[in-house]
Amino acid sequence: MKHLSGLDATFLHLETPEMPMHVGSLNVLDLPKGYKGEFYEDAKQFMASRIHLADVFTRKLALMPFDMTNPVWVDDEDIDLDYHMRHITLPKPGTNRQLQQYVARLHSTLLDRSRPMWEFFIIDGLKSGQVALYTKVHHAGIDGQAGVALGKAIFDLEATGRVVKPPRTRPRSSGYQLGMAELATAALRNTAQQYVKLFKMAPAIARALGGLAKPDEKAAENNAATAPKKFNLFAPRTSLNVSITNQRTFAGRTISLAETKHIARHFGVSLNDVVMGTVAGALRHYLADNNELPAKPLVAGVPVSLREAGDETANNQASMILVSLATDITDPVQRLKAINASSTRSKSTMNRFKAVILDDFPTFAAPWLVSGIASMVGRSGLVNLLPPAANVAISNVAGAPFPMYFAGALVTSYYPVSIASHGTALNVTVQSYNGRMDYGLIACRRAVPDITEIGDYLLAEHQLLMGLTQTHPAAAGPAPAKAAIPESPQPVKAAAKPAAKPAAQAAGKPVAKKAAAKKLPAVKAPAAKAPVARSAKTPAKTAAAKAPSRKPAAPVKGTRAATAA
Question: 487: which DSSP letter?
Fold first, then answer.
């Protein structure tokens, strides 16, 4: 058995029917040329030969007596692959929007805790002739970076795959679950170890907390010009910050990774800053549409990885920082620089006590108490009254910079599908893959019924920033060095120069609805070209970008969303 850490178990304790705590992804796949088989059956056979490569596929929960402390992971010796691998055929015409809606519906249901906590869905019926793979895995066993490691178990670098050594035969145990006495003994032993660990770290924790009271002089000097005049303890209240239901809505959009890096280099900020700046501009326009844009800047909750380099353990090793999205600033370039200053300041603070952040802590008697409080807070409407800590969750996960294959089919897109939570009804997670930045937007359908509009504004904001690189001088000197704490995740280094390709690359034939907008003047592309992503089946139309303006940018007419977006 293996004990769940305090952080891993928190995702179990906070889970309610309205707030499922699993993460996933949506991949659109190109079948091999001339393929005539039944892909679902081939995929199931493929997974049967791979599930031993990752613990998440073969372990299940064993609950403690009276739910007094965290459960443990135990091996499941009777995995029902027909349950974990599902087959869905979309009704005609099999549009891109139908695929999105079905994924949102699948993502709203809880995973069965009596089985290994994962499900894969093969979805066909797309009018493009492609198939889709939707996966979901409980967050208790995996975070963003561990998810990338999980991908290594199921994806190949060639269509022909690789030879996988079968698992060793092990004797089966006689029981379906561990005995009560065995579980109780293990719980007491683990709780004692957690208290000893906490006691030993108490002096270091006290020193770190004391150090927070001292100003970081270096950070203050670097950010004096762009630092906000006033610190806001809470984020402003918006329609995104409410109690949520179990209904979900999903949208995906694709932006060129090379163009995103070009923007970052030009303005002297990080790639993560550009991601937040793009989301900030989109939310600014979206809220302004309904006269909801608050005077105070929106705040993003941004995960930061605490994982050591090379650590691929399937657990959670992350914390979170709060970053101002500077939505009170009209100028996109000044907004981007203010986001960079806020992000740098927050990461600097995190660096000062990251060594004493605990991902494992005593939780005796906590499971039933935390679960009860989570359910009460969500259903009582208390979240609708309290000021939010953050308005939106934004995460950036570095993926493979090369094409991958699943069961012989080419993976053309990698859209993350994450978690919406009480008080933060919208989650924007970005996964880089093969020269693309795939944005996955998941939200409570009642709080954000028009999520596709936010997706369209993302594309428009990216084009606006690209246009501004032509009219604004480049930042003096090299971009700032990477912070010691990597955001979740670290960006992948590019081997090519900025691309002249349009921002929204089509990953396949299904095309999302075009955003209505005024025609804007065309913008010159960077001089150098980057390699074309092999996942794109149909080139997107070149989107126009808007010149600097003090008015919110409208979505760019003619911009295409990616397949499964």
Answer: B
- Give the Cα separation of 564 and 123 in Å (integer): 11
Taking CB atoms within 8 Å and a gap of at least 24, the contacts of 202-208 are 204/355, 204/356, 205/353, 205/356, 208/352, 208/353, 208/355, 208/356
pLDDT digits (tens, 9 = 90+) for 90-149: 999 999 999 999 999 999 999 999 999 999 999 999 999 999 999 999 998 886 566 777
Closest to 183 (Cα-Cα) out of 366, 372, 2, 371: 2
Prediction pTM value: 0.76
Task: Tell me, yes or no, if 13 is annotated catalytic.
Answer: no
Helix (H) / strand (E) containing 416: strand 415-417
Of the residues 3, 22, 138, 139, which is catalytic? 139
Mean pLDDT confidence for 435-461: 97
pLDDT in tens, 150-197: 888 899 999 999 989 888 777 665 555 566 666 666 666 666 666 666
Find, among 384, 214, 228, the residue nearest to 298 by Cα. Answer: 228
pLDDT at 513 over 70: no
Nearest-CA neighbor of 410 among 504, 539, 535? 535
Question: What is each CA distance from 25 to 51, 411, 516, in whole angstroms?
Answer: 18, 12, 28
Residue in the structure block whose two tokens are 């353990």: 313
Contact 431, 135 (CB under 8 A): no
**3-class SS shares of the chain: helix, strand, coil, % to 5:** 35, 20, 50
Residue with tokens 């005024």: 518
Q: Quote the distance between the C-alpha of residue 499 and its chain's center.
A: 25
Rg of the chain over Cα atoms, rounded to whole angstroms, equals 23
Residues near 288 by beta carbon (within 8 Å), at least 6 away in sequence = 552
In the chain, the amino acid numbered 345 is R
11-48 per-position pLDDT tens digit: 898 899 999 999 999 999 999 999 999 999 999 999 99
Higher pLDDT, 227 or 328: 328
Beta bridge partners of 316: none
Length of the chain: 565
Longest CA–CA span in the chain (Å) reads 73
Q: Within 10 A of 247 (CB to CB), how many other CB atoms are there?
A: 16
Mean pLDDT of the chain: 78
pLDDT in tens, 528-552: 333 333 333 333 333 333 333 434 4
DSSP run (H or E) holding 211:
helix 180-212
**Rounded distance between C-alpha atoms, residue 8 and residue 54, angstroms:** 17
Task: Name the residue among 165, 131, 147 with its Cα closest to residue 42.
Answer: 131
CA distance 506 to 526: 20
CA atoms within 13 A on the CB side of 388: 28
CA dist., res. 236 & res. 282, Å (int): 17
How far is 565 from 510, CA to CA, in rounded Å? Answer: 9
